[in-house]
Amino acid sequence: MAEQSNQKPTGDCPAGGYAPASFEKRAAAWMGIAYVLMILFVINFAIYTGGRELPGTFPLFLAPVSVALAVVVARRMKNGTAAGGTAGGAAVLAAFCGAGSIYPFVGELNRICVLAQSYLGQLLTIGVGAPCARLEELPRSAEGARSALAYRNLEGAGQAIYIGDLEPEAGSALRFDEKDERELMSAVKLGEQEEVQQVVERLTSRLRTAGAGAGQWNLFFLELLTCLLRLARGARLDLSEVFGQGFTGAVQAGDFSTPEALGEWCLERCLRIQSLIRRQRTDSAGCAVERTKAFIQEHYGESDLSVERLCDYLHLSPAYFSTLFKRETGMSFTAHVTLTRMEAAAEALRSSEDKTYLIARRCGYEDANYFSYVFKKHFGVTPTKFRAG
């Protein structure tokens, strides 16, 4: 915070800056918590401190800080120029090299709170909003600072309170959102191991660079764990196979010493889920094929036998079933039905004296001529010649 001065800065100044003398006059008229921007000029502006120009360009991360019982007001109260029950406030705009700088900054603000109590005898509470990368996000960040200040009765006054620790969703850097969940689920269910590794590495990298507090880290891990549980339960997997024997869901982010350790744990579980799902699919596909063959064997004599009718029985979509059946057997559903009917027809021709059109009907063909055509195409001879020998 700049040293108090009655000298107004000169030169180009973004709207919203107030000279300290103007702030003193306005603060005296406000009751409750008031907010004023004391601007540290950002991005190609100069900084003015007590009339002294400090040229330079500053990074993009900004964190508005709303202050209850501001230092300026505390100074006035010590000098006996403010009513004893009146609280004032200010908002400070700070620039950082990265989002991770927020915690050293909060630490310094805590130090200011201690100094205000020690030297001024005043209780100072500071609410810190989430860093933001664009100027249009400042209102949201300032509102976060106000929200953090509202927690002072729960967290205790006389300290700096960062909204990202209390409301992790208010932070700007670390969230496990719907996009993350879709990417992870897609990689596990449909991708290869390399794709799973890439997604987990992206998540680990965000944990490593976000500079998040314990609250954000815990919520991030909880949402990640929920995603893994949803994957496992959706596939009807045994949780002990995925997470180990005796798993109760009590694992916490604090159980991991580094983001890399958490990432390794997550990758191992994701690959295990992927392996179990693929094994399950193989077993499920094999089961579907066996049920299909049994259904065809039972109903091949019915002329209305179709893939749609079979899929109603299997509760599978025709497109998915056709792909699955061709992949598992090497032939289409229609080809397998035809093979089953031709084998049945050949057996009937060898073992009975029934007329060809009766055998055709028993094998699912209402048209005897079409049956003869299919039979000759399959065996190379007509039904009559096949029977003869």
Stretches with pLDDT under 50, minimum 5 residues: 1-63, 65-88
| Fraction of residues in β-strands | 5-15%
What CATH calls the topology of the largest domain is: Alpha-Beta Plaits
Work out the helicity level: 55-70%
CATH top-level class of the largest domain = Alpha Beta
What is the average of the pLDDT values?
Answer: 75
Distance between the termini: 107 Å
Tell me the radius of gyration.
Answer: 37 Å
Please provide a written account of the structure.
The chain has 389 residues and is α/β, with parallel strands linked by helices. It folds into 3 domains: 20-170, Alpha-Beta Plaits; 178-281; 300-388, Homeodomain-like (Arc Repressor Mutant, subunit A, Orthogonal Bundle), CATH 1.10.10. The chain contains 17 helices and 7 strands. The protein starts with 19 loop residues before the first helix and ends with a helix.
Any key phrases for this structure?
389 residues; alpha/beta; Alpha-Beta Plaits; Arc Repressor Mutant, subunit A; 17 helices; 7 strands; 56% helix; disordered N terminus
Short account of what is shown:
This protein has 389 residues and is an alpha/beta fold. It has helices at 20-29, 71-78, 102-120, 138-149, 152-155, 163-166, 178-190, 193-209, 214-234, 239-243, 259-299, 307-314, 318-329, 333-351, 356-362, 368-379, 383-388; strands at 37-38, 47-49, 52-54, 61-68, 89-96, 125-128, 160-162.
